[in-house]
Amino acid sequence: RLHFWFEQGYAADMHYMGERQNMRSDPRLLLEGAKTVVSCALAYKPNRTMGGLHRVAQYAYGEDYHLRMKELLLRLLKDIQHEYPGVQGRAFVDTAPISDKEWAVKAGLGWRGKNTLIIHPKYGSYIFLGELVLTSVCDEYDTPCQETCMACNLCVDACPNQALVRKNGTYMLDARRCNAYQTIENRAHVLPTGLNLAGYAFGCDCCQLACPYNQKAPEAMEISEESIVRLEALADADETFFRAMSKKSALGRIKYAQWLRNVRSG
Fold first, then answer.
1. pLDDT tens column, 17-64
2. Which residues contact 211 (CB under 8 A, 6 or more apart)?
3. Residue 94 a catalytic site member
4. d(Cα 159, Cα 177) in Å, to the nearest integer?
5. Which pLDDT tens digit goes with each residue over 163-174?
6. 87, 135, 150, 197: which could form a disulfide with 33 (CB 3.0–4.6 Å)?
7. From 13, 94, 142, 157, active-site residue
């Protein structure tokens, strides 16, 4: 699936996605003697959201999920090693070529939705994924979730640039049309002509907002009114303010020049 997606050009300039595919399919290349993958999800639906133009995707409202998720995974690993001395393990949160979504499906955390995200039956796609790779064998492994999106196409229809395309009987994300890719991963000085940013300057939540599972998902992240005001003030931010806001935040993925480019394109 990954190879086909990459060969179609759907990765845009994310050439690293085509590298080390052997590692993505075999965690034993990441940890010698690996026997088990523990797939974990951390819910993040916020209790309040931004308004107006130049919005930020909800996953970036709080602390950088890489830091928070890694902290929790390492704590879990420590507890496992305390209970089972001798077990070796590594924690991963977007830090190595490991197939997060595939392992999440195998572990029964959810299914791959038509928006290509993992949809948890309770928390929807508002989840961060991370893994522990361990050298021990579990007594019992989980099985894949049996739910699916069925005939629902709300996320596909909600995408402002039709980035969700059907190929080989499944939906794939064409990053070249995706606002999240264009506003974060695209390093060009100018965004493509005709791109509909739908009010976003960092990432995009359009497909997630349309999902029925997300609409009924419980709130899982406390965001203060003050934080929302500060996020909305980013539209007119100077570089000092932007750097302060992006410190230890997923916003740190882009530079101030990219932020200005996105705001001016919106």
1. 778 888 888 999 999 999 999 999 999 999 999 998 999 999 999 999
2. 113, 115, 119, 124, 125, 154, 155
3. yes
4. 9
5. 999 998 899 999
6. 135
7. 94
